[in-house]
Amino acid sequence: MRWAVIGAVAALATSAQAQAPAQPPLPLAGVFPLVRPATPGCALGWRRGGAAPEFRAWGRAEMEHAGPITPDTIFEAGSVSKQFTAAAILILAREGKLSLSDDIRKHLPEMPDYGAPITVDMLLSHTAGLRDWGELMALAGWPRTHRVYSLAETLQIASRQRARTLAPGETFAYTNISYNLATWIVQRVSGQSLAAFTEDRLFKPLGMTRTGWRDNFRRITPGRAVAYSAIPGGFAQEMPFENTYGHGGLLTTVGDLLIWNAALTEGRLGEGFDAALRERPTVAGGRKIAYGRGLITSSWRGWTEVSHSGATASYRAWLARFPDQGLSVALLCNRGDANPEQIGHRVVEALGGPPAPPAAAPATPAGDLAALPGVYVDERAGRVLQIEADGRTIGVRGGAALRWAGPGRYRGPDAEFRFAPDGVERRSPDGEARMFLRKAPADPKAPLPEGVAGAYSSPEAGAVIFAAGRDGRLVLTPSERPSAPRVLNPLFVDAWVAFGGRARLMRGPVGGVTGIRLSSGWVWALDFRRVPGS
């Protein structure tokens, strides 16, 4: 059987998993607009209730020898992997070998004492307040995929952090390091690596025969798809050449992921196990967040959704359940320009899910089009909102347009924005409120402030960077990687921004530049102090 994808046709490869009775054609035209038979693509699996799973596959698993993607193709699942690490911790907790309320320093004495304990459970719910190691290393000049990192290095990087993003338990702050530390805890408590423990306790018992961990990226994995990023005129390999795992790194198939979802739904891991993974923690102020232990419980067009997406290098993944409808969907792709959550929801629509709401939206008031665009900053987190207008609507730079919802109020895909004369408050669905104050934008022609050029060091990042100016922009060059300078554009006085990062000058009592504070989405306020004499 063949299925159309925007007029392009890809043969569905034969698979033992795919031998289901013939079904009516699934209306997937438009779901995979990027995929062609000769490009990287995706594998898809879904299951309704107790019916046999169904599978489809499009595109090539690798480009050099034109191998097709099949439902049996192995991909890397990115952060979909986190629920398996969380499951390992829950097994150990149920056996009394650890407690979710344990201070992590009981198992990881290398970690600093922050004055308030970080519990094992805080790692699983991303409420530990720790900085993400990958973004921290990117700010230091070595992003992931540009250098081989080991699991041992994640613990080393975490243990030298003397500051945190947030106080433990304060609120949700996503970070991969929490799950790397959980991986270490599984190893120290069980006496087995996470890879061995989950093989014995999860994958083998459940029949997930094509699932394991990328704990050694050099190991040959037959049937694995190569990941690709889109470049002008074609594609280039972009693989996770690292030996860190637990936060990601699960090698699996769509069929095995459906087995996992069914095991949780059917209680095959024990009574209440699924509920324990989904349990939403309470943070400061009595607010419950959507993130449980490796799973996110949310509402999508009125349907309860239990899901997680994933992205590592150019692998993309999405695994979701809709418990009330008995529907489970698994999606794995080997192209970095695929949006797995968006594609997954389109699949659910094609399977009879709720239709998209009407596209028409109330008109944006003309006064708001003129008054609201500008630069807004959360000083604590170093986060920036740049509100722009296109003549008809306003939106966040790099994001979707905002829909007018009343005087001074706008809604985006994942938050509500409430504007005031001095700033804007961003409210997420789980009740988190973050205030961004308005800043006067920088003069793009202004020269670099006096005293900025020089060397700056961060013991927490284990790096030195050199700062210089270029046409009003700030150029930061890692001392160990002079071929990779980062060029940041002026944002407001003493602040610059580039995709994925922001820089803010630190000044002493008399105004001299004492340091540069770097921030990104998962790392707040990483300070580089001026090297004396530079």
Q: Can you walk through the features of this model?
A:
The protein has 534 residues and is of the alpha+beta class. It is 18% helix and 31% strand. The strands form 8 sheets. Strands 18-19-20-21-22-23-24-25 form an 8-stranded antiparallel barrel. Helix 1 (82-94) packs parallel to helix 5 (177-190) and helix 4 (151-159) packs across helix 5. The longest helix is centred in the middle third of the chain and has 14 residues, at 177-190.
List the main descriptive attributes of the protein structure presented here.
single chain; 534 residues; alpha+beta; eight-stranded antiparallel β-barrel; eight-stranded antiparallel barrel; 18% helix; 31% strand; disordered N terminus
Main beta-sheet strand count, sense and barrel state? 8 strands, antiparallel, barrel
Work out the radius of gyration.
24 Å
Q: Cα distance, first to last residue?
A: 68 Å
Mean pLDDT level = 90
The spatial strand order of the largest sheet comes to: 18-19-20-21-22-23-24-25
Put simply, the count of helices is 10
Shape estimate: globular
Helix share bin: 10-25%
Beta percentage is: 25-35%
Structural class: alpha+beta
Low-confidence stretches: 1-24
Number of strands: 33
Topology:
Blueprint: E1 2-5, E2 8-11, E3 42-48, E4 54-58, E5 60-62, E6 67-68, E7 75-76, H1 82-94, H2 120-125, H3 133-139, H4 151-159, H5 177-190, H6 194-206, E8 212-213, E9 228-231, E10 234-237, E11 250-252, H7 254-266, H8 273-278, E12 282-283, E13 287-288, E14 296-300, E15 303-312, E16 315-322, E17 327-333, H9 340-350, H10 366-371, E18 374-378, E19 383-389, E20 394-396, E21 401-406, E22 409-411, E23 416-420, E24 423-427, E25 433-439, E26 454-458, E27 463-470, E28 473-478, E29 486-492, E30 495-498, E31 501-507, E32 513-519, E33 526-530
